[in-house]
Design goal:
Layout: E1 9-11, E2 14-16, E3 21-26, H1 37-42, E4 48-55, E5 66-73, E6 77-78, E7 81-82, E8 97-103, E9 106-112, E10 117-122, E11 127-130, E12 134-140, E13 146-153, H2 161-166, E14 170-175, E15 178-183
The chain binds 6-O-phosphono-alpha-D-mannopyranose and zinc ion.
Length: 184
């Protein structure tokens, strides 16, 4: 595949160019990931929780290539739980990924296949290596949009099903004095 259109640009957290693809995730697309089902049902289902702008210079599944993306995760809660991404393992499990904080603040939740978990604080300039065999999810714990860059192998793929079935082993909730981590 080759592209001869406008150049791809990345500045001030905005990825632009004629082959940049945008995926929107609204409340209705996130059924099952939030714990408080009553709060989820009463939320505006049309509300955009996050947007991902991505640049895929090769076909998905290509071995040896890379994809680039920026996630724009809105501030907010469903019940006491902060807005978050669906989170995923890679379909090819051993593929890793880099995330880096651009704007806003939040946490990156990491969990391996034994459900051992850890979190890393995401802030402007923070760099996060997601090892292979590790599920990853972003959580916006701030009052502003959380913008996070990502770069991952073009053959990694997304496996959402394991997370949809059993979830992550911890949840990040809004407490009176700030974020609270609860194990599940
Ligand atoms: C990053 C990358 C993408 C991912 C996106 C949103 O930009 O990891 O591959 O799609 O975050 O995360 P999710 O797919 O879990 O909703
Ligand atoms: Zn990934």
């Amino acid at each position: 595949m080759s592209y001869s259109g406008e150049p791809i640009e990345f500045a001030a957290a905005r990825l632009s160019g004629d082959i940049v693809e945008t995926t929107e995730r609204r409340v209705r697309d996130l059924g099952g990931i939030f714990e408080d089902k009553v709060a989820f049902r009463s939320a505006d289902q049309d509300h955009i929780v996050y947007r991902v702008d991505s640049y895929a210079p090769v076909e998905p599944g290509t071995e040896g290539g890379l994809f680039f993306g920026v996630t724009h995760l809105m501030p907010g809660v469903i019940g006491r739980e902060y807005y978050m991404t669906k989170g995923h393992f890679h379909a090819i499990r051993n593929r890793g990924e880099f995330y880096w904080g651009i704007s806003g603040c939040g946490v990156l939740v990491l969990m391996d296949e034994t459900r051992a978990d850890r979190i890393e604080e995401v802030r402007p300039g923070s760099l996060h290596y997601v090892p292979g065999d590790t599920a990853h999810r972003l959580v916006n714990t701030g009052d502003a949009v959380l913008d996070v860059g990502a770069c991952w192998p073009s053959d990694a793929g997304h496996d959402y099903s394991s997370i949809a079935e059993v979830g992550f082993s911890l949840r990040v909730l809004k407490g009176d004095a700030g974020p609270e981590i609860e194990n599940r």
